[in-house]
């Protein structure tokens, strides 16, 4: 591949990338009316977007459903925090080690798990992840600090930092040469990685390697019969998506230097699967949208208590207001899981392709069903590989 | 790879990137100007917002719901509604039922899910979006430690809810974090002498311990205090959290030669392990010529409800119990019962007290400026809040007060009358040197 090859993207891909960049970078503006334009949630949007697109490289392209992706997220977080503690508060080395170590971890787990496919693969990954969780929660407490989570301490060595800057009061904050990675700068730092990650995914989707992965998804046996050894390809996809998860975990530690074991719990792995299915498996944008939706529900819907509802429905007559508040309060506050579940059921039942299928249906409705790019692509993925 | 002719030139890509970078550069200046203020979330209107961060889903949802009830009650009382509760019994008190410093108290809520990440996310939401000036709540030490360190970074005061691990005000203590609840060291120190009185000095103890930080510290505290009264520790076994079935851990106890089982479990774990230990007939056994006994170092009414008849006669420790007869406890139980129809749990009590203490500290400091409020809380001595004379020790932000040793009530008069107070162990007996746990509080002033 020559240098120009990297940039030779289809017109559609470039348009998507540009629009996506604008949407991501302008988040502090357009999220305002949704009540989501505060730094922490936007950081999460970016970080879980990275996690979801990485997961999609494995699940969306090869069809291998990993139920243990949260383990890589956790490994990334722990590595990043340890890098902060031992070497420097600069996020670059932390992210570097996070990606490398979670990649190695994925290599080991993938090497074993990928000997099986289908449900057996899922169960194997789930078992490995749950094992990592239990190790982090109890057995490895000296390294992970168990339940209380790994945190920075004033007495940490920070070898590199201590050579350049003197002792300061309080705990240090991760920073790139002075620019602190909290608040809005922290969000833009994550957003840049999301855009880079998105770009790489686009390139993978369009590459022969991506085609190969899709071939594995549609019929692995036939791929084998045509003379391809598929395992190196699936393993590569597994490691790449593990590195994405490690990057996401590292970024979580950068914006908020704490790593807890429950980041690796099976519910966290399940959440990643939900994000991808909700948004649209195998599509470029779908998993990101799914991730945003779930994080929005988790952070905003859970915060609506009865007070908020009474304010919201204050314009209604008293009796009716009480009734409406009673009904809606079941779905917000502690009931946010219920709402999410309902949305998930509805999406899976009526839009099996996720939110992206809904988008496609709407666009075909307006364009009269002809010559739509997305549609062409969805057909593309179903094409059987040539013999 | 084939060369595509319809693709854009490198220049176009670079142009796009440049446009993106400009957006990235401009947007922060628009946003950050809104944060420019003397300290974070300084209340400017006529209300002050508090953030109640409790587990609404997950294993401690019951405690969380009770905590939230207590917070709502506290807000009512601070705003001068209801019967005033502990506002009337608190000494000294600068609270008049006119909000805090004349501003009406408003609140926002969040769900910690008993996960550090979720708890930090909802705390950050309350601080960054809803403008909460103080965060309080939680029903586990992992969450408390995580949120406390976040609050230190953000410069927002954290009044911990139910958290029993030594770490919260020990190794992981923070300048901006305060704990009213007691800890495992105090549980051990309070239980030791009572165990010696009740069961003698020649006992052999077997520990089952929840396999996480709190369990480790609880086990250490119980081991130290029982060995100090001459007991021998036969074995300590770690059990996975949320195990459900403890039979494989209980069977070896039968043949170990131990005559006391100490269950360093909390919540559902404790309910399960205790129920199964009783079902295995441990309490009917005679070992070494003595009755076999079970001890549960941390007891709560909600757990006692779950364990049913099995808790009858079992010793443990508690921070507070609604059956206490002092004026403050009575006032709180009365107004809580009037509003909700049942007595409060000890989690509710500690959360209620914490809210009032914060409000009072603001009044005494005459400002919401966090460093001044912290100084007002440090070393503050108060009474009339259900635990007798209490002090917020300045060195580690831990409240020192008497600790209750309780016993499962053999003849309950109501479905809530599950624990009887055996002894109120005075403060002097459970006090310790703050240096033994290490840790560092950190600075008063926090850069933003």
Automatic annotation (TrEMBL), chain A:
Coiled coil: none annotated. The keyword Glycoprotein does not apply. It is found in: Cell membrane. The chain crosses the membrane at residues 17-38, 45-72, 92-112, 119-140, 186-213, 233-252, 272-297, 309-332, 338-356. It comes from the Bacteria. Keywords: Cell membrane, Membrane, Transmembrane, Transmembrane helix. InterPro entries: ABC_transp_permease (IPR001851), LivM-like (IPR043428). The keyword Transmembrane applies. The lineage of its organism: Bacteria, Pseudomonadati, Pseudomonadota, Alphaproteobacteria, Hyphomicrobiales. This is Branched-chain amino acid ABC transporter permease. It is a multi-pass membrane protein. It comes from Maritalea mediterranea.
TrEMBL record, chain B:
The keyword Signal applies. Residues 47-409 form the Leucine-binding protein domain. Keywords: Amino-acid transport, Signal, Transport. The keyword Cell membrane does not apply. CDD domains: PBP1_SBP-like (cd19987). Gene3D superfamilies: 3.40.50.2300. Belongs to the leucine-binding protein family. This is Substrate-binding protein.
